[in-house]
Amino acid sequence: MSDDKRVAKLEIAGKTYELPMYSPTAGPDVIDIRKLYADAGVFTYDPGYTSTASCDSTITFIDGDKGELLHRGYPIDQLAEKSHYLEVCYLLLYGELPSPAQLEDFESRVTNHTMIHEQMHFLFRGFRRDAHPMAIMVGVVGALSAFYHDSTDITDPWQREVASIRLIAKMPTIAAMAYKYTIGQPFEYPRNDLDYASNFLRMCFAVPAENFVVNPILSRAMDRIFTLHADHEQNASTSTVRLASSSGANPFACVAAGIACLWGPAHGGANQACLEMLQEIGTPDRIPEFIARAKDKDDPFRLMGFGHRVYKNFDPRAKVMKQSADEVLELLGVENNPTLQVAKELEKQALADPYFADKKLFPNVDFYSGIILEAMGFPTSMFTPIFAVSRTIGWISQWKEMIADPQLKIGRPRQLYKGATLRDYVDIEKR
Ligand code: ACO
Q1: Most buried pick, 162, 169, 343, 374, via CB within 10 A?
Q2: Pocket of ligand 1 contains residue 204 by CB under 6 Å
Q3: Residue 45 pLDDT
């Protein structure tokens, strides 16, 4: 952010206020309104933060018009193609691609934190068998703060580092345990001789009665799904983590808040909702009916996996995900998967429809991810927990950046109050 001495002028009741402007390294200029209330006595109004930068950051950049996503400057398609999840984690967390020695050290630190405290196993038993795995994750991740007291002091950079590694390492273990619990199978402990994605697949699909060999193609596809979801600048769940952390709360509690936010169908829950929608459509001949419903103002139905607050072009992650879906299904010998056929035809018809073209609605990352996850054997209820595993690195990188910022202030939005003005209490017998 550079202060280029330009100012924006705002006139209120005949008085002009000068607001500093900043030029980012990429993206639109920003007007600094921090002193506006003190100087002019007015607030700005921006529900949904459509025009508000809530922080400055050096982690991720999105150009929604071009359909570009960069992590520390590197395009997501290059990272998905050439890198792997733990290397991307290092990049997001520390700002640069690691040297071979740095990567080895990082992978070894993550690998050595994959187990969770044995007493945490009892927590799972408190949940109903039919609990959604996201419900379990909100609770269990928050409960990490009750087990790892030695990494909850956010003023200590070393404890912040340990908490970051613990979260990256333990999240797949917790997600896999949530899954095993809901299907009534025993928990599988992590195996440190496996890579991150293979270990996760094993913890989800292995049973003690049989040998389990991870299919390297599926492991690569899993790693790519993790990589594509790793960070997405100030999205709803990341902003939730930042807001929760701004009060000084510990990182485990804040990441639990992020998981809660991610759960919603407008955010991370869209991958589950999208696959369910594709399955409900069932056959390509029913697509026009669903497109008509999505366009109908009186019908709350929306095309899941379509549209994005920031992308007004193809979500670059969706392109990689579509290619991955083709590869995985072909390798599994299910290239004629009817859901994939419906998805491709739906994409084609929606993109040719002026409603979607005019509103710049394109497939987002969730449009194809569910198809891959289903082909791997995951039930829809696991889609959002997998997103949570992937996004943990984004949450903690943004958290770490925020906590290290000397200008950190508690997040405290204002409001446009429209309620009753001052009135006297009326005794109950007089109402
Ligand atoms: N289907 C039909 N119409 C849509 C869709 C959709 N999927 N998305 C947006 N629109 C329409 C809206 O009705 C609105 O129309 P209007 O201007 O006539 O009122 C217009 O496009 C703009 O939509 P908003 O909701 O104002 O856009 P916003 O930026 O607030 O919402 C969102 C973005 C939530 C992602 C939205 O596109 C949506 O609900 N998509 C479906 C859910 C989804 O796929 N979410 C995943 C997001 S990606 C992620 O979290 C990983």
Answers
A1: 343
A2: no
A3: 97
Segments in 352-430 forming alpha helices (H): 354-358, 366-376, 383-403
d(CA 200, CA 192): 11
Predicted confidence at residue 4, as pLDDT, reads 66
The neighbouring-strand residues paired with 61 are: 70
Q: State the closest ligand 1 atom to the C-alpha of 262, by its place in the atom list counted from 1.
A: 50
CA of residue 354 to ligand 1 center, whole Å: 15
What lies within 8 Å, CB to CB, of 156 at 6+ separation is: none
Q: Provide the angle, in degrees to the nearest 10, between the axes of the packed helices 383-403 and 157-183.
A: 170
Contact between 123 and 140 under an 8 Å Cβ cutoff? The reply is: yes
- Atom 16 in ligand 1: which residue has the minimum CA distance? 359
Cα-to-centroid distance, 64 and ligand 1 (Å): 14
pLDDT at position 268: 87
Say yes or no: CB of residue 142 within 6 Å of ligand 1: no
Mean pLDDT, consecutive 10-residue stretches, the chain (431 aa), reads 78 97 95 97 96 96 95 97 98 98 98 96 94 97 96 94 98 98 96 97 97 92 96 97 97 98 90 91 95 96 91 90 86 81 92 94 89 90 96 98 93 97 98 96
SS (H, E, C) 271-314: HHHHHHHHHHHCCHHHHHHHHHHHHCCCCCCCCCCECCCCCCCC
What does the block give as tokens for 29?
A: 């200029």
CB of 312 within 6 A of ligand 1: the answer is no
Ligand 1 pocket test, pick from 302, 310, 347 with the greatest ligand atom count within 8 Å of Cβ, gives 302
Pocket probe for ligand 1: among 306, 311, 355, 386, the residue whose CB has the most ligand atoms within 8 Å is 306
Could you give phi then psi for residue 8, rounded to 5 degrees?
-100, 140
Nearest-angstrom CA–CA distance, 255 and 243: 11
Ligand 1 contact via 304 beta carbon (within 6 Å):
yes
Residue nearest to atom 36 of ligand 1 (CA): 307
- At 2 the pLDDT is 47
